[in-house]
Batch of 3 targets.
Target 1
Amino acid sequence: MPLIPMVQCLSEAERGGYGVGAFNVNNMEQIQGILQAAREVNSPVILQASRGALKYTNLVYLKHLVQAAIEENPDIPVVLHLDHGDSLETVKTVIELGFTSVMIDGSHYPFEENVAISKAVVDYAHDFGVSVEAELGTLGGIEEDVVGEVQLTDPDQAEEFVERTGCDSLAVAIGTSHGAYKFKAEPKLALDLIAEIYNRVRIPLVMHGSSSVPRELVDVINANGGKLGHSFGVPIESIQKGIANGVRKINVDTDIRLAMTAAVRETLFGDPAKFDPRDYLTPARAAVTKVVTERMRAFGSAGHAGDYEPMTLAEMKARYAKA
Ligand code: G3H
Ligand code: 13P
Ligand code: ZN
């Protein structure tokens, strides 16, 4: 199956009432581990690459690793997405590379500038049938010490933003943040905002910073020479509540990083004589599969890989042209 457009993946998720995990990838073991999970639970999947990932893989390795993954898994619908695109230039580069979806993150700009850059990306990408995710509001914990820096997504603005940009999905700020240190105590998330925004925009919503930071992984890392502070991630139940109210794409990177690091540390601490990378990357890859499988089940995408025939970018282009 060729890579599918994000629009198709998320509208099928909408139809089925589930969410699709978007997992960040940088190397072969992550891509293999994620696709193995998709195969095991028969789930569609979104692979996403940040600008850091593009640099790390020098573009061409990423392109061909993903190509290998879809060749090996013809029955799994896969979207290849640019995570946190910063400019039209980056968007052009990845569309050339074969990405079927891009994010333009103008959330740090004032509203009008965010509208302008997002609309420019929509106009460009839709001409290739490529889907566009934009972002409104800024990520960050809703905790006393960061109040003021964080701007939750405003439903009125969201409606105007979607109307004016024509984006296909919207990343919203509801109190999550990126990385392993999200909350010092029980998470506070503005989950009610999700339904309010969805009712106004009626397009799939995206939750960034959705790692759950499992305590057991942090404990394994620390028991094997690591030094990570304890913190709280996003509870799976909160994500499920989000999915019930319009979230269709859930971004997870940190949990995969933690799972791999725990496996590598455990292996090398368990046998300090090991030095063949396959000895520690094999368990690291299996750890990716384990965490991703759990997320696919929890988000409800498991079992949905065979629900639909893939749409091509040419078909999407024609659909955009008619709209
Ligand atoms: O949102 C950020 C993702 O976790 C990607 O992180 O820029 O370090 O690749 P990165
Ligand atoms: P986490 O750091 O919570 O995994 O979030 C990843 C993300 O939002 C990528 O865009
Ligand atoms: Zn993000």
Target 2
Amino acid sequence: MASASFTAVETVRPVRMLLPEHGVMKHATDIRMSGTALEEYHRKRRFTETPEPVGRVRRSSRRCIFVVQKHDASRLHYDFRLTINGVLASWAIPKGPSMNPSEKRLAVRTEDHPLEYAQFEGVIPAGQYGAGTVMVWDTGTYKPQDGLPPDEQLARGKIDMVLQGQKLRGGFTLVQTGKRSDHSSQKERWLLIKHRDEHADPSWDMESPRFDRSVLTGRSLKEIESDRPKKISARGAR
Ligand code: MN
């Protein structure tokens, strides 16, 4: 039935996914261009335990969204994510992004996340992957620069973009450092660098109380932790 609607232009491969909450195998249709879209994300999490969204690849989405999540895990860090190829390409930034062009921030590439994750704010329970509190620290749209689509920029290891968020604005470059490792277990190291434009802020300070709250709900990390919101519904993920 569904196969009749498949097109020949893309590689369409049904994947089997074990959904722990049902204990049965369910089929999902995963259209992929490259990489292991969301397999690693799903493998690392137990969705009966974590309120994080299961999500799926949404190749039809053409929106260019970015999100920065403040993640109070075993070590506080910020997760920077960009919609590319129907998923959120992701980097963990230990010190967080900076609007100061002279501060290059280490950004370690992490597994792709589903688009639904851009609205995820809550508490990942103890014992689960990434246990700790997650805040939507900033979000908005981005415009790829350089005349290249974002997937090609990602593939070349250099992404030039203009962010239109509430905290982050203007031009940024994400650039991979050094050679790509043959060892897939080794995480890619990138740098996030603010362009010298009218939005640059040499006095940028992540510790400022101005940057303390969620752009989604206005809550602090402490307030999110004590609220313990319910799992995001399929409706809310749209
Ligand atoms: Mn994280």
Target 3
Amino acid sequence: KSSEGQKMLEFRRSLPAYKEKDAILNSISKNQVVIISGETGCGKTTQVPQFILESEINSMRGATCSIICTQPRRISAMSVSERIAIERGEKLGENVGYKVRLEGMKGKNTRLLFCTSGVLLRRLLVDRDLKGVTHVIMDEVHERGIDEDFLLTVMKELLPCRPELRLVLMSATINAEIFSSYFNGAPVIQIPGITHPVRTYFLENILESTGYRLTADNQIDDYGQVWKLNKQTSNKRKSHIASSVEEALGSADYSEYSQQTQDSLLCWNPNCINFNLIEYLLCNICENGKPGGILVFMTGWDDIISLKEKLQAHSVLGDPNRVLLLTCHGSMSSSEQRLIFEKVDDGVRKIVLATNIAETSITIDDLVFVIDCGKAKEASYDALNNTPCLLPSWISKVSAKQRRGRSGRVQPGECYHLYPQCVYDSFADFQLPKILRTPLQSLCLQIKSLNLGSISGFLSRALQSPDSLAVQNAVEYLKLIGALDEKENLTILGGYLAMLPMEPKHGKMLVMGAFLNCLDPILTIVAGLTVRDPFLAPLEIKELAQAAKAQFSHGFSDHLALVRAYNGWKVAERKRIGHKYCWKNFLSPQSMKAIDSLRREFQSVLKSIRLIDNKASSYNTYSYDENLVRAVICSGLYPGVCSVVHKDNSLSLKTMEDGQVSLHSKSVNARDFKIPYPWLVFNKKVKVNSVYLQDSTAVSDSTLLLFGGSISIGDVEGHMKMLGGYFEFFM
Ligand code: ADP
Ligand code: MG
């Protein structure tokens, strides 16, 4: 065992971070804030927290030190703490532990605690000064997540009150200076990296060297349109970056390439992720490439799952004796996540389909190949229309470089970018920080519940201040739904919403569902809105899939349809035929299972904030008042409202911000040309060429009147008494 320990020590000493150990510790002892920057893999995450821990132990402060290291994601908090415990030859939960939402592994002697930024923020709610904490390490600050940016501002204001507290910021090499200037010129320690050369192919090189031919019909985009590069498409509304991509393509010169490559490039569809090409490349590597794992960067859960299904049907890629096919995204369970770190047998190739969470924070060993689709699903936010959008968009140069860098870790690597070099050249240098491109509702609630003073005042002291229109929109929204009062103070509802780790609208549904005693279906609905759409719609058999969903259609509501589908699955699952049920009804078994576990998670959060009592474990499961559920959905989704007008056998739908809108073809309401209600409330709309409502529930005038807007939870009881009589009458 000690030789194992010796080996581990040798490994640790070989990491570039180890050579900077003294410089790092020295700087931390002299400065309250230190920034450490280095290439992925140099040992920041696994070594720096250990340096601090060991130095505290050596200075006889081992029993009193308390080091908190934040990670942007649960998966990294868990996997990093586990890795460090292994490096130290300890069990997790002794010196080193972790705490993420609803899960944790820590003991009373835990000195080094890994947690998500959200967990530290919630701790600050009850412990403003971080009493007893000696060091806060914030990892991956370059990602500029909203929690991380928020935490930076809170920490900056806390530091003068806690002069002995140390703050260490760790960042990839991309933007360390901005942190240094925010913290009054704090020192930056650069750790040099080890990288092997990476042979890089852009789309034109891939086409030229493989002879793969792109045609209009092997590239079909999400909305089922076959791509043709023609003049009309340039009239479509396009985002900034998309149009710069178009421009780049127009002026690129490919005359030195073969005719076939040139023709292919003309057909290239920038709006689709080309599954066929990915499959072809994977197969090519498996058959002809040197040994080593392959990491494929996709945009999100949905295309990862679809690609996985496609590959599983492939004769080589789907053969478990030759390929270990894994996925890596933010919403996987911890046991699933662990699989990606495991070693594979000789002769088996590991293929990991990942979102951008594999870009900077996770080390997957033995990677030699990277395939990069060039996109990430990004929350963006249109402050003018007050519309959040979650659409795949082009990544930044920095991200593309990070992705490429994942391949040259253990030996010389190869990277395939599925877009032409001229498109890469048109990428933005950096991605905008999240705080500048998402709605600020949750953030504003947290500022209020942390008593940080006026919302706009606090945000003006942030690392980068969001647009004042975005701040104003968020405050207006929170007032509208009753989370803030006229003076911007937190209401009782607002207090609950601040404690719930989800969007305020989903939080409000749970709160109202708990108060109005119809939590069971609401748990399913909120969980269903959080996971990938459980109703599958494979392109080739779209009609069949839609017909399958229509069986669950109920009360002109996608949300009620989901409740039916889930309850049916639950019954089938108990008879152990859950899978068959999903298969028959075009439902995703993964989503159903995810809903099941999210429901349990939500229940324990609601218990922890005492919205439901501890004993409540089963609710009156299969019976609920449909109209009450409708009312609760309305209370959460308001002001996402669209008016329904029937005119000469056609249906006209309008929202205040967008004017005319359409229903997504998957919505149960899209099948009905007569919706006997004047309103639809919806959770999500997407902008493509027109605005589509993805899901909707029909509501009556009185439901909208009574439940849209700000019901004060303080008088919910009175409200309920009053409503008691109204229910039957109105709805
Ligand atoms: P950084 O934070 O600078 O990107 P890390 O500290 O995460 O680097 O990783 C340093 C090195 O430790 C990696 O290059 C890898 O070789 C090794 N390593 C990290 N995590 C694991 C793990 N879970 N399993 C095996 N090796 C790991
Ligand atoms: Mg790291």
